[in-house]
Design brief:
Elements lengths: L3 H5 L9 E3 L5 E5 L9 E2 L6 E2 L4 E4 L2 H4 L9 E2 L4 E10 L5 E9 L20 H10 L3 E2 L7 E2 H7 L7 E5 L9 H8 L1 H15 L3 E7 L4 H13 L4 E6 L9 H12 L5 H5 L2 E5 H11 L7 E7 L7 E6 L4 H7 L7 E6 L6 E3 L12 E6 L16 H5 L6 H10 L5 H6 L8 H5 L6 H11 L1
Helix pairs in contact: 3-6, 6-7, 6-10, 13-16
């Protein structure tokens, strides 16, 4: 396997664009690629599978009407299904996965990419194409669902908006930022397709103040969007949090000088990102299902960092090898950002559709995360953008303290940005506890 450092000699800025990853001999493809749903295999051991073939889909017998719109899972490679086994997921959970041994000829990889006349498609046909291709929305680092489900949520809302964030929610993850710089035409096309699919009345493009986006978008707006209103919002991405739903709506309200409540506006919006728009483009324009993902690989353990385009099911071990291997002892692996990402403990963990970044942190930078006791210092309240009392909620859930019901109800306002946990001197898992309580509501 070649490593990225071999290319770095020719390309001084490898992180300015996507680098295609090398294929592994075997891939382990988790059967859970989005929150709340685990797919059922439609293939069995010993079967020979084509690249792009559907290998798993959600069972209607298990999930009923909730199954409509859940993304299907496609094989990233041709080959033989070796087995269905248990594996560790990148979100910290465990579940079933399909293991495929590479063999046979490819359907898409290495082939000429033909474009399709998608302009003649109706909104329903576009949505069906997106759904059949297995596109999921990766806007949130902590929650991932099918793009079709996101579209259906606001189907009956008035003044629907498509809000597209072209920078990263977590500054340690540079996936969306790099894609915006290198794949802006594909992103613009994906935005228009999604807008047509969801029949929105306005497109909102949120970009970093470090990017001269309006000038880049001008030609695409005239050619693609036509008379559909497009609002550009400049965000100070240097400050965290800046890319959450609440921050984007606040900036939109301020720019438009609106008096409507944030909740009312938010409920009529589809929030998505540059990464998802690339997948929409591939699905509709190129008729290629989601079989690869863009993953920003970084960390002081590696020889180099890069935005790699890798097949779903590729192990973290193989990804690290391509970036030159480890130059320091590995201490921790963090998925989807170092602020509110998930820590995993196995290099054999496979990539899924919702993985956008992997950080390999050395033992030297691996800080002690042993949990202490609450010091009642109030720092978590001071930094909370939603004006919550994370320490009180934590005391109720973990210590069984008796608190007013208003604190229980307030957890729904939490954006799960992770700042309270980061500032806590006792390293209490405040965000994680609030997230658990939210799930029970």
């Amino acid at each position: 396997m070649a490593v990225l450092t071999d290319f770095a000699k020719k390309d001084k800025n490898p992180v300015m664009k996507t680098t295609t990853g090398f294929l592994s001999r075997t891939l382990t493809i988790p059967l859970c690629q989005e929150n709340d749903f685990e797919c059922t295999p439609v293939v069995k051991e010993g079967d020979y599978i084509k690249e792009g073939q559907v290998i798993a889909e959600v069972s209607r017998d298990v999930y009923g009407s909730k199954s409509f719109g859940v993304a299907k899972i496609h094989s990233p490679i041709p080959g033989k299904l070796i087995c269905i086994k248990n594996c560790n997921y990148p979100n910290g959970k465990q579940g079933k996965a399909i293991e495929i041994l590479l063999s046979g000829s490819f359907t898409f990889i290495g082939k000429k990419q033909n474009t399709f006349d998608w302009n003649s498609y109706s909104p329903a046909m576009l949505l069906r194409t997106i759904s059949e291709s297995g596109v999921v929305n990766t806007f949130s680092n902590t929650y991932c669902s099918s793009l079709e489900l996101e579209v259906n949520k606001i189907r009956d809302e008035e003044n629907k908006k498509l809000v597209v964030r072209l920078f990263d929610e977590d500054p340690s993850c540079e996936t969306d930022s790099i894609l915006t710089r290198s794949e802006i035409e594909k992103i613009a096309t994906g935005i228009f397709i999604t807008a047509k699919t969801s029949d929105v009345s306005e497109i909102v493009v949120a970009y970093s103040n470090n990017t001269k986006l309006p000038a880049m978008f001008d030609i695409f707006q005239k050619e693609l969007f036509g008379s559909l209103p497009v609002t550009y919002i400049e965000m100070k991405s240097k400050f965290y949090p800046a890319g959450g739903k609440r921050e984007l709506i606040s900036a939109y309200k301020k720019q438009k000088k609106l008096s409507a409540s944030k909740t009312k506006i938010q409920n009529s919006c589809i929030f998505t990102d540059a990464n998802t728009m690339i997948h929409v483009y591939n699905a509709v324009v190129l008729n290629i299902p989601v079989e690869t993902v863009n993953v920003f690989v970084n960390g002081d353990c590696l020889q180099s960092k890069a935005l790699l385009k890798v097949s779903i099911g590729t192990s973290f071990r193989d990804i690290a090898k391509q970036c030159g291997g480890f130059v320091k002892d590995l201490g921790k692996i963090i998925v989807n950002g170092q602020i509110n990402g998930v820590s995993v403990n196995s290099l054999d963990t496979p990539v899924t559709k919702y993985v956008k970044s992997i950080s390999f942190i050395s033992e030297k930078d691996h800080t002690d995360r042993s949990v202490g006791i609450c010091l009642r210092c109030g720092r978590c309240r001071t930094v909370c953008k939603s004006n919550l009392c994370p320490d009180v909620i934590y005391a109720k859930i973990i210590e069984g303290a008796t608190v007013d019901s208003v604190y229980d109800d307030s957890v729904q306002l939490c954006t799960e940005c992770g700042v309270c946990s980061a500032y806590c001197p006792s390293k209490l898992p405040l965000t994680q506890v609030i997230k658990l309580l939210k799930a029970e509501k």
